[in-house]
């Protein structure tokens, strides 16, 4: 049976592939491709639950209303929307947004400052610049 993939640090994963120059390759068995395809399919899936997704969508809707009403700076809200849509905020930050009212919306800039958003957006841009994903796979007996 195929179980759920586990996440490893880069160091842990690379240590699994350590080999000597003299080591001969070994053919994989019939199950390898089935397992590999399963892992590849689930490797980048979003693991959010329905409740978390509902909360995230609620925050997105609220931010879009604020953007339309020009409640906060447009650039700030655009960056925040992009970050939320890329799952870049914690559940706690999402809940904070959802609890805000028009009267206390200015607290958002204090809780999630623009400098923080800029750092996150810069990191997202660096990740998006990479156009390839390397998946190392090996069959263990």
From TrEMBL:
A GO molecular-function annotation: helicase activity
Alphabetically ordered keywords of this record: ATP-binding, Helicase, Hydrolase, Nucleotide-binding
Protein name, UniProt field: Helicase domain-containing protein
């Amino acid at each position: 049976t195929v179980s759920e993939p586990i996440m490893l640090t880069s160091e842990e994963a690379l240590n699994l592939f350590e080999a000597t120059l003299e080591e001969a390759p070994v053919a994989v068995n019939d199950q390898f491709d089935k397992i590999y395809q399963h892992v590849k399919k689930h490797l980048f899936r979003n693991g959010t639950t329905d409740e978390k997704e509902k909360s995230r969508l609620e925050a997105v809707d609220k931010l879009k209303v604020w953007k339309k009403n020009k409640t906060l700076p447009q650039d700030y809200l655009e960056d925040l929307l992009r970050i939320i849509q890329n799952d870049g905020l914690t559940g706690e930050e999402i809940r904070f947004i959802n609890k805000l009212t028009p009267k206390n919306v200015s607290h958002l800039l204090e809780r999630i400052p623009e400098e923080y958003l800029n750092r996150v957006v810069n990191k997202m841009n660096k990740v998006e610049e990479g156009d390839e994903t390397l998946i190392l796979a090996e069959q263990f007996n």
